[in-house]
Amino acid sequence: MSGIIGAAGAAQTLSLAAMEEASRQGKRDTDIEHLLLALALSDRPAGSALRACGVSLSAVRRAIRDQEAAELAALGMSVRMPEPGRIVFHETSGYAWTRRAEALLSSAASARSDSEGAGYTERVLTLLLVEPSGRVSDVLARCGTSTAEVRLALAGDTGKIPAASSARARMELDVAGAAGTRGWVSGTSEVFVPAVPADVWALLVDPLRIPEWFPAIGTVSGLAEDKGLEDNESSRRWWALAPTTRPDGKSIRVREQFRRRTVQMIEARAGESVRWRFEFPDAARAGTQDIVCDLREDAGGTRVRLTALWARPQGWCRLVGVLLSGPRRLVIWLNLFQIGGALSRAFR
């Protein structure tokens, strides 16, 4: 992943999560507390540091509600805070940053970044810890920690990712081998999911629930029965249809040859890894796409490593595929970004 894409990805992921959390509260103005909520969901060192201090998504949500109630009480107002609803950001519009949140993000973006965008979320958290209103400090106190403790955790090794287990390492070698043999374009990303591994695993291995985490699929129906598609335990495939409407109700135009695809579970290791394959039976040149999900337990939830592999065309089309490998990598990154966001939302 290039430095530009890495930095853009860090900023986009943080912004999206913050505005999603604002929409859950029925708000259009996205403020610094929503940034703190987004950081509690981050797979980067800033998120690890917060969760190591007990600042989980649920803890921050509860602390913000208590803080808002306390602020109203200080003004002599006794108001029962409304219960938050579901995330409606993708169905609505009109979201914007408050001035102080926008200024903070601008300061974080203007600082120097490394080649993978690492450091952006840490700069945002560092600026939140010294934000002059004291609101973040008050919320952290309600979570049972302090700005000083979070700063110490951020300076430590809490953001380092442990080495993969031998089983996961073998699967990564298998994927790399397949990519080298068949000429795949691949990309990886990580996402933190605020749910225990067992719940995340149950979602990822259920073919009928694929639309919950793969936005490119609208529905999954029964087993494929077309001629040439086998139906046995080792190669069972399901039909999947593309979505026809966006979350906001607008129609999606889908070419006829891309309306349906087959879904097949290639490999699964209970509670650890699953690999799905997606193919377009009506578009021979579309190529095969695999999605690999590796799970491991993390403080406050589950860390999922996503790998997307896209087979290049063979024969005379291979030259075209090579020429398009750059744009295709960008498409893969966007694909991973959408999957990671949907996987997180499924448990929020």
TrEMBL record:
Stored InterPro entries: Clp_N_dom_sf, Clp_R_N, Polyketide_cyclase/dehydratase, START-like_dom_sf
Membrane-crossing segments per the record: none
UniProt keyword terms in alphabetical order: Hydrolase, Protease, Repeat
Domain Clp R: 1-71
GO BP field: proteolysis
SUPFAM superfamilies: Bet v1-like
Keyword Aminoacyl-tRNA synthetase among UniProt keywords: no
Superkingdom in the source lineage: Bacteria
GO MF: peptidase activity
Annotated signal peptide: none
Keyword Repeat among UniProt keywords: yes
Protein name: Clp protease
Species this protein is from: Mycetocola tolaasinivorans
